[in-house]
Design brief:
This protein is of the alpha+beta class. Helices cover about 55% and strands about 10% of the residues. It holds the Pfam family GST_N_3.
Length: about 240
């Protein structure tokens, strides 16, 4: 196992806490693996001045999550997870049952599950941010989307992800444990990260989301989240 210090660059909200699903992915992975790390808390306008000279130099707006491990810089959550697997081979693996299987689920998460939440949840982000972060997020997303966040979110609701998340609920109901069966994997952390994002934006959103699924599958899903949530407790 590597002895180099690992530094994790994270986004804080107005309370100085983790909130972003992209950052939860890595934070939960580090907690699960038991890897010691130091957090450098940033707000949006401070990302480029802090890390831009060391990585993602070709980007106008470098992104988090980013880690520094000794002299090595790694960014983007899926790349970070694969790096941690190699750098810390004696820690519990998150690639069960295989790299291709987890990689496929990561694509499903990014394109389908996360995609289904964007219109309803992105407009709620400025309200939980520090003033500088809120201004930056609202301004840059308006530029990217071609409209204010409020307009982008019109007509959206919690029901937007009933079907996409329902696929995961059904899967966990069938396995009775985790997404891919008896062992926790990065697939579970991906889903937990989006639920934690909902909780940090507004606990009622998480409550309504969990309430969409009933019967044995819904109960299995709630029990599954109950097993994942302790990983986040130190950071809530």
């Amino acid at each position: 196992m590597s002895t180099d210090k690992l530094v994790f660059y994270d986004l804080h909200n107005a309370e100085g806490k983790c909130w972003s699903p992209n950052l939860w992915k890595v934070r939960l992975a580090l907690r699960y693996k038991g890897i010691p790390f130091e957090t450098v808390w940033l707000t949006y306008p401070d990302i480029k001045p802090t890390i831009g000279a060391y990585c993602q130099q070709d980007r106008d707006a470098p992104e988090l999550p980013t880690i520094r491990h000794g002299s090595t810089w790694v960014y983007e959550s899926w790349q970070i997870i694969q790096y941690l697997e190699k750098a810390y081979p004696d820690t519990p693996s998150l690639l069960y049952p295989s790299l291709p299987a987890v990689g496929f689920f990561e694509k499903y998460y990014t394109t389908v599950l996360f995609g289904s939440t964007r219109r309803h949840l992105l407009p709620k982000i400025p309200a939980i941010m520090d003033p500088r972060g809120a201004e930056y997020f609202a301004r840059t997303r308006r530029e990217r989307l071609g409209m204010p966040l409020e307009q982008y979110g019109e007509g959206s609701s919690v029901g937007d992800w009933r079907e996409s998340l329902g696929v995961v609920v059904k899967q966990i109901g069938e396995t009775g444990a985790y997404v891919f069966g008896e062992k926790l994997s990065f697939a579970d952390i991906l889903v937990a990260s989006i639920l934690l994002w909902m909780f940090k934006l507004d606990p009622k959103i998480l409550e309504d989301t969990l309430g969409m699924y009933d019967g044995t599958e819904g109960e299995a899903f709630k029990a599954w989240f109950g097993k994942l949530r302790p990983l986040a407790e130190p950071d809530l």
